[in-house]
Amino acid sequence: MQTRTLTEQVSLQLADEIGRGRYAVGDKLPSGRALAERYGVSAAVIREATERLRAQGLVRTRQGSGCTVIARTGAQGFQVPLDVGLDRAALGAVYELRMDLEAGAAALAARRRDAADLQAMQAALSALERHLEDPVQGSEHDVAFHLAIASATHNDHYRRLLQYLNLQLRQAVTAARANTARQQGLARAVHGEHIAVFEAILAGDAGAARDAALRHLRNAAGRLQLDLSLTA
């Protein structure tokens, strides 16, 4: 029997409390700091747990105003299994999906990005460069960069779906970055792939942005030794 991650444990407990009415529809959840203290976990775990609740349709999150309960039972729509990172075939299938979605998002971002979008991408890249050898912090900023691209499409459906997929793949991203950190010079090469995507978006070149994003994700899948032969 596989042990649940801290994120799964916290999100399941919160979902159960919402379902039992401890937090009614319209109520706000306690602050991230209060939840972290209550469960004895990091702020990052709380962010991931509440994002799972949002993806399930249980809460709405807004910057600066926290999480508000909007339903007692989760939506039964599209979902990626929580243990996808443990199943190589399933992980490969999700990477195929990511390649099409994120390549398209990068192309749209190149056409639609504004100054604030570029600043968010640059901030994520700068933070990532400072933590290239740290798998945990590096993963946080890696995901933030991809989400900044999704936000730059100015299509909220892209942002929400890619935010959900990146959350589910956080475990795999962390594993990939841990592997990268063990190989001399590889972390810097991977960072160069991110920079290539950013520079294409900065230049407003949709085709180059699409190609750079696709190349980065194919390389990422290769570093995880996933078989994506059907996408070649």
| Low-pLDDT regions | none
CATH superfamily of the largest domain: GntR ligand-binding domain-like
Number of domains in the coordinates?
A: 2
* Element order: H for helix, E for strand: HHHEEHHHHHHH
Strand content: under 5%
The CATH topology assignment of the largest domain is Four Helix Bundle (Hemerythrin (Met), subunit A)
CATH architecture of the largest domain: Up-down Bundle
**Which strand order do you get reading across the main beta sheet?**
1-2
Rg from Cα: 18 Å
Q: What would you call the structural class? A: mainly alpha
Terminal-residue CA separation: 36 Å
Topology:
Blueprint: H1 6-19, H2 32-39, H3 43-55, E1 59-62, E2 66-69, H4 88-112, H5 115-130, H6 135-151, H7 156-168, H8 170-181, H9 186-203, H10 206-223
Antiparallel strand pairs: 1-2
Question: TL;DR?
Answer:
The protein has 232 residues and is mainly α.
Please provide a written account of the structure:
The protein has 232 residues and is mainly α. It is built from 10 helices and 2 strands, in the order H-H-H-E-E-H-H-H-H-H-H-H. The protein has helices spanning 6-19, 32-39, 43-55, 88-112, 115-130, 135-151, 156-168, 170-181, 186-203, 206-223, and strands at 59-62, 66-69. The chain has a two-stranded antiparallel ribbon. A hairpin with a 3-residue loop joins strand 1 and strand 2 (66-69). Helix 4 runs antiparallel to helix 10 and helix 9 (186-203) packs antiparallel against helix 10. The two termini are 36 Å apart. Pfam families: FCD (PF07729), GntR (PF00392). Keywords: DNA-binding, Transcription, Transcription regulation. GO terms for molecular function: DNA binding; DNA-binding transcription factor activity.
